Each structure stands twice: as structure tokens, then as C-alpha cells.
């Protein structure tokens, strides 16, 4: 055997050993993979059912003539198809996305919207809460750039909208792209627009923890694998985002778990950090037709990896390898479609809800008064809580996608009841002050925004001064 061939063989062996699956029986295993299934409630992913019905708690307000009249609300989403829907008579303007077809369908991407039903239902939730508000629908496509997002917000501003609602969450590969999207929302809020957005449904889909100097990263108790969907069979689209706060270098792997034989790598992201590589390469072995996607990167020092793959049904897990790690690194892993077996709910709010001045809405189970298990949370980012289920004539929305348009519609009702403009911070304080519960709720429960209570609070006056027909923050 010639020396050159031998060197190649040795190099391949080293590579295989370094990337062996972090499970029992593998070269890098430390403990067996724990058995058991995920007991967490799956997060809704913009589901729209056809049960019909109407939003509760707004009828009394509407009967008094408070209907959102004179208020313009902008709704941002992937795509809309208002024609023939319950929102048709409310639509004052409709901006289609560049990648949108005539039917409102768009190419499926990281946000995972199959069609326009989700965002049309979001608009319907606003319209049924504030039935006389004017709606401006701004479609941004499935995976908008910050520039496209800015153009949509500029279009809404040109139409003098007072409230903007975006019930979506964004998962760009590069975290700095998410920061730029968030900055668009921040600028709109700073210019006086009430910008309402979803905190996200990712409490069960995020892991945060310490890095390691070498080898596989531990997710929990020396467990080096983080199962998707708690080990249950899953399939279809998988979107994973890994980021960290140092110049260290970590690689992201997606494995398929097999009962017999080695677990194969089905997708990986192995960018070289700190300028070692000027391209981003994400390999999807599960879909050979789209096995490698290469995009240029002008930000080679950014600390991130990402995987977008389509996989057949099976059992899958995520692993993180410290190629050139650092014990001081803080890592964040997000799975936008499946839950993670080892999840950390704190600070699971995602863009653009992390923006300053942006109103982030979480979801509450109104039967118990407790935060919905999947709802993203953070002490500093979630401003108010809305109902986790909202019924409209277009269908039933669940999750923060339901809570967000209900809160935005309630803000439109308050704005129409006021004789003066109300600042965003005043509206947030009002909604918090008027949030309601009942005797069934536990001491750990949180109040839920309720339209009638919010309007009544807005109309109150103080002993020493008139509120001008509107709530004034003390």
C-alpha cells in the first residue's frame, strides 16, 4: 500500500471516529441514551381548524358601538387570500409578496407555512375583535430578507396604520439576520406604531447550556444526544439553529436513530468559524436531490450553524460537536418544528419579539390560567398574555398565533374608544391592569387580556383630572 493511499485511509478513519454518533455503543458515547417519551404538549404550528364560532368577550363592547372604527391595522404574514373570506370587507389594502403566486401559496421554507390559511385566519381574528377596523395585509413571503420586511413595514406606514401585528417568528440561518429583522420592528415602534408580535411557541423547542472544550456537548446529565419529538417518530421538514457567544467553533449534526447498526448522519452544518471558511455548507444526506446547499457568507466570524432538511419518518436526534470549543461558551439550540427532549424554556422568545418597544404576546390556557406549556417566555420580553385558542369564522387558531391578533384587535378597540392617541407603553400598562382571571386560577397563573375589561379600563377617569375619554398611565 503506498504511503499516500495509507494517509488518506487514516484521515478517513480519524474523521469517522470524530463524528461517531453520541449514543450507546458509539465511539464517543459516555452513557446510554435515556429511554422514555416526550410528555410535553406539542406546540401548535399555525394550525387552522374549521370548527367555526366567534371570539368571546367582545360582544358587549361591540354593542356599545366600540368596534375599532377609524383605526387602521396592518397584518404582516407569509401570504393572505382574503377574497371570499370573513376579512374581505375589512381589507383596505393588500400587498403581495414577491414570491407569492396568484393563489396566495408560497414556497415552503423555515417558517413552515404551507399556504395562506394561517395568516388569513390571523387577519380574521383581528377583524372579529375589531370588526370596523381597516385592515392592510402585508405579505412578506416564507423567508423574508430584512430588506423585504422593511419594504412591507414601510408600505404599512405609508398607509398610516396605527397598529401592526405579526403573529410569525423568524429563523434565519445567521442570528444577525434575525437582529436586522427585529431592528425593523423596533424602528416602527420608535416612530409611534404599536407593533404587536408573537413571543413564539418554542418553550419546548429550545435548549440553552454551556459549551465544552472538545468532544460532544452534554445536553443533560452527560447525555450527548437531544431527541426530536422526545424520541417519537417524526419526519418531514426539520429546521435547527445553533448559536453561541464566543469565537469557539462548534458543529451541528442530525442523526437518525436505528435499533441495529450505527446511526447515520442525515444532515450537518460544519461552518468554519472565525474566518476559516467564507461559505456556509449544510449537507442533507436524507434528501440526495438537495444534498448540499452552499450560500456565500460575508460574516465569517458569526458564531452559528443551521440545518434545514427534509427527512423520512423515523427517530432523530441532534448532537453538537466541539471542533474547537470553549468551556465558557453559552450555546443556544432552537428547533422550529419539533420539540426537543432536553429543553430549556427560559428566554425562548424569538425575533422580532425581542425588540425594544415591540409588544410580545404569550399564550395562556384560559381553562387553567397557566401559561401554555409551549409558549415562549422571558421575564424581560413577554409583555402581555392572550388566550391560547381563538375561534373565528375562518377557523380556530391556537398558540401565540391566536393570542397575538386578539391582543392587537383589543388595542384597536381601545384606540377607537380614546379621544387621543395612546402610546404603546400606556396600552401595555392598560392591558396588564385589566387582564382577568377567575377563581379556578392558581396563584402561579397569569392574567389574560380581555377586550371588555380593557375598554372599561381605558374609559376610566381619575379624581383629579379627566382622561379625555381614555386611560392615562399614572
UniProtKB/TrEMBL annotation:
A Pfam entry, by short name: Peptidase_S8
Single Gene Ontology MF annotation: serine-type endopeptidase activity
Family label: Belongs to the peptidase S8 family.
Domain Peptidase S8/S53: 68-427
Keyword Hydrolase: yes
Name assigned to this protein: Peptidase S8/S53 domain-containing protein
Organism of origin: Haloprofundus marisrubri
GO biological process: proteolysis
Disordered as annotated region, ranges: 272-302
Lineage: superkingdom: Archaea
Low complexity bias (residue ranges): 276-298
Amino acid at each position: 500500500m503506498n504511503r499516500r493511499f495509507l494517509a488518506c485511509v487514516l484521515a478517513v478513519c480519524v474523521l469517522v471516529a470524530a463524528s461517531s454518533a453520541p449514543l450507546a455503543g458509539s465511539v464517543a458515547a459516555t452513557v446510554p441514551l435515556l429511554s422514555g417519551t416526550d410528555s410535553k404538549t406539542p406546540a401548535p404550528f399555525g394550525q387552522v381548524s374549521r370548527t367555526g364560532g366567534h371570539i368571546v368577550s367582545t360582544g358587549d363592547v361591540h354593542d356599545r358601538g366600540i368596534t375599532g372604527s377609524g383605526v387602521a391595522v396592518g397584518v404582516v404574514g407569509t401570504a393572505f387570500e382574503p377574497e371570499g373570506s370573513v376579512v374581505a370587507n375589512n381589507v383596505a389594502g393588500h400587498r403581495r409578496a414577491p414570491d407569492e403566486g396568484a393563489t396566495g401559496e408560497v414556497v415552503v421554507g423555515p417558517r413552515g407555512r404551507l399556504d395562506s390559511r394561517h395568516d388569513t385566519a390571523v387577519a380574521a381574528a383581528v377583524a372579529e375583535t375589531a370588526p370596523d377596523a381597516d385592515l392592510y395585509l402585508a405579505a412578506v413571503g416564507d423567508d423574508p430578507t430584512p430588506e423585504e420586511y422593511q419594504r412591507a413595514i414601510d408600505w404599512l406606514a405609508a398607509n398610516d396604520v396605527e397598529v401592526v401585528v405579526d403573529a410569525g417568528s423568524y429563523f434565519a440561518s445567521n442570528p444577525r439576520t434575525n437582529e436586522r429583522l427585529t431592528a425593523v420592528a423596533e424602528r416602527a415602534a420608535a416612530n409611534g406604531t404599536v407593533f404587536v408580535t408573537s413571543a413564539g411557541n418554542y418553550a419546548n423547542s429550545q435548549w440553552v447550556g454551556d459549551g465544552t472544550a472538545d468532544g460532544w456537548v452534554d445536553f443533560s446529565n452527560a447525555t450527548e444526544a437531544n431527541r426530536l419529538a422526545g424520541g417519537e417518530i417524526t419526519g418531514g421538514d426539520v429546521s435547527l439553529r445553533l448559536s453561541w457567544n464566543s469565537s469557539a467553533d462548534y458543529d451541528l449534526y442530525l442523526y437518525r436513530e436505528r435499533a441495529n447498526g450505527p446511526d447515520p448522519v442525515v444532515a450537518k452544518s460544519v461552518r468554519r468559524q472565525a474566518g476559516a471558511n467564507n461559505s456556509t455548507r449544510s449537507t442533507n444526506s436524507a434528501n440526495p436531490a438537495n444534498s448540499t446547499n452552499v450560500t456565500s457568507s460575508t460574516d465569517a466570524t458569526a458564531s452559528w450553524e443551521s440545518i434545514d432538511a427534509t427527512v423520512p419518518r423515523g427517530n432523530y436526534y441532534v448532537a453538537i460537536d466541539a471542533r474547537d470549543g470553549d468551556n465558557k461558551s453559552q450555546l443556544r439550540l432552537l428547533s422550529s418544528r419539533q420539540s426537543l427532549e432536553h429543553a430549556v424554556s427560559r428566554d425562548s422568545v424569538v425575533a422580532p419579539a425581542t425588540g425594544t418597544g415591540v409588544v410580545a404576546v404569550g399564550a395562556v390556557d384560559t381553562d387553567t390560567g397557566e401559561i401554555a406549556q409551549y409558549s415562549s417566555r422571558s421575564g424581560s420580553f413577554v409583555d402581555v398574555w392572550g388566550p391560547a385558542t381563538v375561534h373565528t369564522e375562518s377557523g380556530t387558531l391556537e398558540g401565540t398565533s391566536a393570542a397575538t391578533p386578539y391582543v392587537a384587535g383589543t388595542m384597536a378597540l381601545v384606540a377607537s374608544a380614546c379621544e387621543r392617541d395612546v402610546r404603546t407603553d400606556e396600552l401595555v400598562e392598560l392591558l396588564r391592569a385589566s387582564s382577568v382571571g377567575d377563581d379556578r386560577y392558581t396563584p402561579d397563573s397569569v392574567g389574560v387580556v380581555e377586550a371588555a375589561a380593557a375598554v372599561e379600563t381605558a374609559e376610566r377617569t381619575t379624581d383629579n383630572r379627566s382622561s379625555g375619554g381614555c386611560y392615562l398611565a399614572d
